[in-house]
Write a structure and sequence with these properties.
170 residues; Chitinase A, domain 3; 7 strands
């Protein structure tokens, strides 16, 4: 009788142990932190500079690299813009692109109406017609500590943007 009880106790303990292990997310990475983002951002900016690129910043604090010079006036709030873009995480993974919205591979929108992420709206103001710019937007000017959809928390976003048209609001 004691042997059967001991077997049942061992079976129950073993089953409990196995089921608790099944609920563990062993492969899950720890959530990113602001410190992780800052460390990755500094390394990314250093790499850009080591490759001979100049990095400028907007008044808000958005980093940008001019890849191709444009011409004419820069957009202001209320202007209608047509751009082509690709959005990447700092590790180079593509998360969005204007190619998926229409055959021309562009999007059109009114600058700051409605507002997009702060870093995007601010970055548009340094891109004139036919310019191609890489915007590096720290998470505090994007989706912050919460993230959004496929954007994890504390994600610096990198956009390569080509300004096709600027139509002043008059």
């Amino acid at each position: 009788m004691k042997k059967n009880r001991l077997k049942y106790v061992i079976i129950i303990l073993f089953a409990t142990l196995i089921s608790s292990c099944l609920n563990m997310n062993i492969d899950e990475e720890p959530a990113p932190t602001a410190e992780d983002e800052q460390r990755e951002l500094v390394a990314y900016l250093d790499k850009i500079q080591q490759n001979g690129n100049d990095i400028d910043t907007t008044d808000l604090g958005i980093y940008y690299v001019t890849m191709e010079e444009g011409e004419g006036e820069f957009p202001v709030s209320g202007d209608s813009l047509i751009v082509g873009y690709a959005g990447y995480f700092i590790d180079g993974t593509l998360f969005d692109s204007s190619d998926k919205y229409n055959v021309e591979g562009t999007i059109d929108f009114v600058l700051e109406n409605p507002p997009m992420i702060k870093g995007w709206d601010d970055g548009m103001k340094v891109i004139n017609k036919n310019a191609k710019v890489q915007l590096i937007i720290p998470s505090e000017f994007a989706y912050g500590s919460e993230g959004s959809g496929t954007i994890p928390p504390y994600s610096t976003l990198v956009f390569v943007v080509k300004m096709m048209e600027i139509n002043p609001s008059n």
